Amino acid sequence: MKDIYISFVCERLSLKDWQVVNCITLLEEGNTIPFISRYRKERTGGLDDAEVAEIKHWYDAFTEMEKRKETILGVISSQGKLTGELEKRITETISPSELEDLYLPFRPKRRTRATVAKEAGLEPLADAMWDFSAYNPEREASKYVGDKVPSVEDALAGARDIIAERLSETASVRETLRGVFRMRNLVCKATKAASSSPDAQKYKGYFDFREPLQRMAPHRLLAVLRAADEGFLSLKIDADPGRSASKMYYDLCHGRKYPSRALEEQLKEAIADSYSRLLSPSITTEVLKEYKEKADIESIRVFGENLRQLLLSPPVGQKRTLAIDPGFRNGCKTVCLDAQGNLLHHEIIFPHPPQNRKIEAMTRIADMVEKYGIEAVAIGNGTASRETEQFIQRTGLPEGVKVYTVSEDGASIYSASEVAREEFPDEDVTVRGAVSIGRRLMDPLAELVKIDPKSLGIGQYQHDVDQGLLKEKLDNTVESCVNTVGVNLNTASPYLLRYVSGIGPALAGAIVQYRAEKGDFRRREDLLSVPRLGNKAFQQCAGFLRIHGAANPLDNSAVHPESYHIVDRMASDLGVPVASLVGNAELCSKIDPSKYVGGEVGLPTVNDIISELRKPGRDPRESAEEFSFDEEIHEIGDLVPGMELPGIITNITAFGAFVDIGIHENGLIHVSKMRRPGIRGMVDPSKVFKLHQKVRVRVLDVDLDRNRISLEPVWTS
């Protein structure tokens, strides 16, 4: 990558140039983001996976820009108009907008008013006016009157059209106006369609709205842009046409003697036309796109952080689970799963109205709990969730059997997916959905990777943002979470394995097939026997795969096989076998890290090895906790300002956090209510709360007409 790009990345990420250069080299060598951030800290200076992902993003973006530059240079060169100065400006720019501005005058274009004027032979007249040499424009224009140009006014009009287009294609003019527009207000007005459409009412707050673009919150900008796309709002930037035209005129005259009065009138007319007809619409579109890109980045950042928190939700682990997808009329779909998540039994119970078969349902639950040795109960948080939780609590579960509420978001998507059909070809969607709820309790990460993140109900304007950037962020987040936790090689599904560093869908399928044919993997090196899994793939994936009960205990840790010899030396120096060192914090404390630094092995790698030896294969996730809503609250009408209630964070946005308090409607803790006592300044909701965090909230206001609940957190010391 060129030095100009490396300098940009270093400045943007506050990194040293050697860090960026080494990271790019590692990426070009085929290394993955998790592998680089975990096992190549010496070469990158300890960059984390987010920083490596950011460098990769810019590396890919600038690689595409270089291709674009080659295309542009080729087009301009083929026209015979490529000067040394222009080539230098194109080669050295790092701004996509500047690059396109430089290309604009040479871009093949449709037939325009300027094109017609040029065909009539009026370009020399336009050049004379542009150069200020046409002191008497009318006299100069009279030379062009003929068959194609009926009059002097027609000649001047054609020349003005050429000048107007030339101005609209001048890079400095466009950048000047961008600066003007960026400082102005975005003005929103309701359209006629808005007054007659019920769907428009959600945008009512923007029907007569203006705000400086620079201060506009990302979620508000995305909201008005969506409303405009739906035809409910008209948008404009309130840049003053007169001032903008005057600025263009003075920029045109900069460094030159002012033109004659007659020529000045012609130029100002051309400038006014260029501004209103060509530049204002174009610059408005560009500036809105620019601010939308910033809003996209913020929205995608929030989405990615929510996804990370969701995927790293606490698991209950391998427990025999009874999972219930609750419902009223159609009953509660109930399944029993073994400790590995395999389906053992399913049926439907009807404890709620209109059937009210409570005694029968209690008997069936008791039988299932006893027969299948149930250790945990998972209840979906959809319709009838509260009622089902209360019913289960009254059934008299054995001591130690805990009840958990599980988010159903995306469960219906999974149950109808190809993945679910492959896993349960003989079961209907209701059974698959209940299984998904149970498995989410056991291991949220392993189950949620099967579902498109956009179906998990945790995004903000997710369908409006840049879909390519969103996919990149979400893919990186899933990959980071999977590799942070690590994967059991002998039990992982192909859908989980595909996110392991260096594997992907094809190798994941090959690993599962090999496992089915040959039996469990006994050591990491056995992976090299999997068809098409070569040394490079092994290097990338081995450290993130775990083999429980392996002969070599390091195979169940995050220590990479390339570092096993270092652990062997550590154990030998302590006079103990490796098995005695693994998991022995007291022995690990006796290791002097500096003794094992040398060659390409630095202190960061040695410290990581020692840390892993202390707690090998440690799951970074917390343990799942039981939770109960307030038993007195069942619907929004039960709420009274001042009430304090338990709740669960269900979604985090730039403007606040949504909280499930056990009724159909979620409440909102607005960002303005998130400041802890003694803390000033702006608050980032994603830094205050985590997805699915248990919280205690106070009701501030209840709007029954709009089903809106305003909350504030109750801080604990």
Description:
This protein is an alpha/beta fold. The chain has 5 domains: 3-106, Orthogonal Bundle (Arc Repressor Mutant, subunit A), CATH 1.10.10; 113-303, Tex N-terminal region-like; 321-442, YqgF/RNase H-like domain (Nucleotidyltransferase, domain 5); 481-614, DNA polymerase, domain 1; 636-713, Nucleic acid-binding proteins (OB fold (Dihydrolipoamide Acetyltransferase, E2P), Beta Barrel). Helix content is 48%, strand content 12%. The protein contains 31 helices and 15 strands. α14 (218-229) packs across α16 (261-311). It is globular. The protein starts with a helix and ends with a strand. The model has no long low-confidence stretch (mean pLDDT 94).
Characteristics of this structure?
5 domains, Arc Repressor Mutant, subunit A, five-stranded mixed sheet, five-stranded mixed beta barrel, Nucleotidyltransferase, domain 5, alpha/beta, Tex N-terminal region-like, 15 strands, 717 residues
Entry summary:
This protein is of the alpha/beta class and 717 residues long.
Report the sheet with the most strands, covering strand number, pairing sense and barrel closure: 5 strands, mixed
Number of strands: 15
At the fourth CATH level, what is the homologous superfamily of the largest domain? Answer: Tex N-terminal region-like
CATH architecture descriptor name of the largest domain: Orthogonal Bundle
The global form is globular
Question: How many individual helices?
Answer: 31
Can you tell me the CATH class of the largest domain? Mainly Alpha
On the 0 to 100 scale, the average pLDDT is 94
- Could you tell me how far the N terminus lies from the C terminus, measured between alpha carbons in angstroms? 51 Å
The low-confidence parts are none
Share of residues in helices: 40-55%
**Structural class based on helices, strands and sheet pairing:** alpha/beta
Oligomer: single chain
Task: Output the strand order for the largest sheet.
Answer: 6-5-4-7-8
Indicate how many domains the architecture comprises: 5
CATH topology of the largest domain: Tex N-terminal region-like
